[in-house]
Amino acid sequence: MGFEEVELKGNVHIQSGARSNGDYGLPAGSKELRQRNQLERYLNFFSTLAFSATLMASWETVGGSLAAGLLNGGPAGIVYGMMFSTIGSVAVAASLAELASVNPTAGAQYHWTYNLSPKSNRLFLSSFQGLLLVFPALPGALPHWEPDPGTGFVQPRKLSHREIPGHAVDLGSFDHPDNYQHLCPAGHGGHRGSSWNHAIVFLPVTIAVLVALAPHNPNEFVWNTFVSGISGWSNPGVAWAVGLLGVVTPLGGVDGVTHMAEEVKMASKTVPRSMIWGTLTNGIMAFGYAIAVLYCMGDYMEALTSPTGYPIFTIVYQATGSKTAVNILMAMGLLPGWIALFNGLASVTRLTWAFARDNGLPLCDFFVHIDRKHKIPIRALFLVAAVVVLLSFIQIRSTAAFNAILSISTLGLYVSYIIPLILLVIKRFREPQDIPRGVFHMGRWGLPVNLFAIAFAIYVSIFLPFPAQVPVTRENMNYAGPVLGAVMIFACVDWVVRGRKKWQGPTIVSHEDRR
User: Fold this and answer.
1) What are the φ/ψ torsions at residue 117 (nearest 5 degrees)?
2) Tens digits of per-residue pLDDT, 125-163?
3) Is residue 290 a contact partner of residue 247, using CB atoms and an 8 Å limit?
4) pTM, whole model, 2 decimals?
5) How far apart are CA 114 and CA 420, in angstroms?
6) PROSITE patterns, alphabetically (predicted)?
7) Which phi-psi region, left, alpha or beta, contains residue 69 (left: φ > 0; alpha: ψ -120 to 50)?
8) Distance between CA 90 and CA 497 in Å, rounded?
9) Mean pLDDT of the 38-47 span
10) What backbone phi and psi angles, to 5 degrees, belong to 28?
11) In this structure, how many other beta carbons lie within 10 angstroms of the beta carbon of residue 3?
């Protein structure tokens, strides 16, 4: 395994690579101890691309989020929304990829915020960004699939239309400490193969069955049918924007692979390419799947009012006439969701580990530990797993409270993209000479792409908190805005009480081989 030099604050340099066991005889709480707890680099471009492509599970997620688009916008709203979402998400991925190429670390967004902020407020902004990134990341793994005895289908647990069924989780999966280097053959080959199964096997089979068995709708229905008013949103523009979220959400995790950067070979080159190609691949697959489903869709209102709560089940049942066939085809979307589960768990674990390494969490010296046998941050892994398990129990008491926690995931992600990108654009205008270039950069296209990415992310963030239906009730209320506001208030209070005394910003700066 190759070595990578890392720089510590205070001009101390070490090498991360082959390591001895234990805590190196260094005192607890020391900067050197936190930095020597480094990860092994074993992921190459293809395994990293597989990670990125599978993490979003976009075509699978589109199937689970059809209700949002059918309720607001209709078939044409979904089609053109998918195009807009893909272009916007690729712009966000490319903009973040520039930053990842310069500083490919597991902390990602809050590291970039620190580097781009004015010295006078970089500590507060990076601490604020870190909490704003870690807190929303945890609930993303909560939804899971279950059998519904009333319909005979295996379906996502009924939550809200903001959920991402493609990122499904079953608590039994926590029996496994991690999925890459130690659960996949040859370090990454098994993971790569599992990833491409969802693209070259499951997706074509699903589309082929629908196209072969279902009657086809005319082009006018798919490309020119806009729907508004069913949900109570009578303004066509607002209805389309609210329904757009059903196709924006599947492409929301463009940053997932960046948190694995410290396990990637030649990360400054590999991670940016994986972000962009993974997002583009998912967008193309999701678009193809959406087109096929809309052409093969039967009765519109029957699908929208599906007893399962998910139109895709009724659409497939209309095409096949068999609940067994529905379960088989839905399982083809569920199985990649299991891979996405492991990817999401690993990504959030690395983010949590990085935040602990930077002294952003209580008991940071405990959670920064790298297990000497598995070579993963296993304590951070169990912390994330424990939080997810505890959050899942909330549903027993209150589904509304559970949905409120879950609703923050996508909104928190987009806000975490906006902060460093705005700082990057400001720096482009004020101090363009101080912006370092990584292996990947967009040259003169950087500024317009950055501006479009910011506009896209802000637009999405404005409408993410909107309820899917009006009038608003306790059951259909979208709690994303209030919950995110609560997290922001907590981040500010934490800064006053603890952060300003302990937070010194990122403690590691990558100087890897950029060849």
Assistant:
1) -80, 155
2) 999 999 999 988 877 655 444 434 344 444 444 433 333
3) yes
4) 0.83
5) 9
6) AMINO_ACID_PERMEASE_1
7) alpha
8) 39
9) 86
10) -60, 140
11) 12
Q: Count the neighbouring beta carbons within 10 Å of the beta carbon of residue 433.
A: 5
Q: Would you say 336 and 54 are in contact if contact means Cβ atoms under 8 Å apart?
A: yes
Radius of gyration of the chain (CA): 22
Gap between the Cα atoms of 418 and 426, Å rounded? 12
Residue whose token pair is 């990454």? 188
User: Which residue's entry shows tokens 């005889």?
Assistant: 25
Closest to 202 in 3D by CA, of 60, 9, 53, 384: 60
Residue 302 and residue 318: Cα distance in Å, rounded? 10
β strands within 106-203, DSSP E:
145-148, 153-156
Task: State the Cα–Cα distance between residues 415 and 408, nearest whole angstrom.
Answer: 10
Rounded to an integer, the average pLDDT of 413-432 is: 93
Query: CA–CA separation, 30 vs 7, rounded Å?
Result: 15
The pair of three-digit structure tokens given for residue 93, joined into one six-digit string:
């991925």
Q: Strand pairing of 508-510 and 12-16?
A: unpaired
The H or E element containing residue 15 is: strand 12-16
Q: End-to-end distance of the chain based on CA atoms, in angstroms?
A: 16
| Full DSSP string of 231-252 | SS--SHHHHHHHHHHHHHGGG-
Q: Find the length of the chain.
A: 515
Q: Are strands 145-148 and 12-16 parallel, antiparallel or unpaired?
A: unpaired
